[in-house]
Amino acid sequence: MTVTHDHHWTTKSRHRTSEGIVVYDGCTCGRFRVRHETTLQVEKTLAVTHVTAPVRSTT
Fold first, then answer.
1. What is the torsional sign of CA 51, 52, 53, 59?
2. pTM of this prediction?
């Protein structure tokens, strides 16, 4: 069963580049996305990923 929800993105950081602005957003579910904004106010999502905690050894 797949559960989906509306993401609630919060900007974590943004950086100006020669081709526009790169924006890093995080959601309350643990997913992150990378967006690219140009000077023409065009927004493009470059990546969405889920960050998981490292697995700890029980030994």
1. negative
2. 0.61
Give tens-digit pLDDT for 10-38: 999 999 988 788 899 998 888 888 888 87
pLDDT higher than 70, residue 47: no
Question: pLDDT value at position 2?
Answer: 60
CA distances from 8 to 29, 34, 38, 39, 57 (A): 8, 14, 22, 25, 33
Q: Which residue has the tokens 């929800």?
A: 5
DSSP 3-57: -------EEEEEEEETTEEEEEEE-TTSEEEEEEE-TT--EEEEEEEE--PPPPP
Q: Are 19 and 38 in contact (CB under 8 A)?
A: yes
